[in-house]
Design goal:
- This protein is mainly α and about 280 residues long.
- The protein folds into 2 domains: about 5-65 and about 80-120, no CATH class; about 150-260, no CATH class.
- The protein is about 30% helix and about 0% strand.
- It is globular.
Length: about 280
């Protein structure tokens, strides 16, 4: 989809909500009815389109960062460590805008609301953790942090035969990940939340495209155990650090890019074993 098409798809719900008086609760639903809408639960949450989510949650793309901190530090005069990479373009942006509507996101990502948010079950909220708790208070996010790890794991230099971090030893490799990865792990990024061809092309132009995600902005201090999709010339021997890794990505990340007959089997639903006994 083109940049204009992607933007139009995302902005349309904003216009719809505006026409409805900014209630952000469509079809005359009450707040409680909206909280229990089928879109918040599987299986509907697994196929929900962005416009359906943004019909209520449009404000997530309307928000902007502060021009200055509560302490008075102006954003224009501050530079965060992750902004030093050349893949971080433009002014400071909110988390969701950075992953959905910025130029870099449109160019190399195809993230959808359901990529990270697979529902929001009020029964799983922890608002009444003590006697004086607020039953309407959401005290924890319902997003698996492993989703962040998919792109933002720590750089695993130990597995690559590199003596230390890429920041220290990258110059020895011309800061070019493709010096090695033109031969190794060449079957990559083939998932429905990324644009693999765009990533590969841009990585040849900008040295931070690879490291910008894979280590440049690490989430926690552990790397992500990526599936080892077979690639041409792949050695038969599996390294010790990779012996327990899967050889295919999670099923839901392959839907739409892999023919249905080639998709890995879906895991059995909870309770299925009991019903078949």
């Amino acid at each position: 989809m083109s940049k204009a098409g992607r933007w139009a798809m995302l902005i349309a719900p904003l216009l719809w909500v505006s026409a409805q008086g900014n209630t952000q609760i469509p079809d005359g639903l009450t707040y409680d009815q909206a909280r229990w809408h089928p879109l918040h639960f599987k299986p509907a949450s697994e196929t929900a389109a962005d416009y359906q989510c943004l019909a209520c949650h449009a404000d997530i793309l309307e928000r902007r960062v502060r021009s200055e901190s509560p302490a008075g530090v102006k954003a224009s005069e501050a530079l965060a460590w992750y902004e030093t990479l050349d893949t971080y373009e433009g002014e400071e942006e909110t988390f969701h805008r950075r992953h959905l509507v910025t130029n870099f996101a449109i160019q190399v990502m195809d993230l959808k609301c359901r990529t990270c948010h697979l529902g929001n079950d009020p029964r799983e909220e922890a608002g009444m953790s003590h006697a004086g708790g607020d039953p309407t208070l959401i005290q924890r996010k319902q997003v698996d942090p492993e989703i962040c790890h998919l792109c933002h794991g720590q750089f695993p230099y130990e597995h690559m035969g590199i003596p230390g971090s890429w920041l220290e030893y990258g110059p020895a490799f011309q800061n070019n990940c493709l010096l090695c990865h033109m031969m190794f792990r060449t079957n990559r990024h083939q998932v429905n939340y990324l644009k693999p061809q765009a990533i590969e092309a841009l990585a040849k132009e900008k040295e931070d495209v690879c490291f910008g995600c894979h280590g440049g902005r690490p989430w926690y201090r552990t790397s992500y155990p990526y599936p080892r999709h077979p690639w041409p010339g792949m050695p038969e021997a599996v390294p010790d650090w990779a012996k327990d890794r899967p050889t295919v990505s999670e099923r839901r990340f392959l839907i739409g890019i892999v023919p249905p007959e080639e998709l890995p089997a879906a895991p059995p639903k909870q309770g299925a074993a009991l019903r078949t006994r």
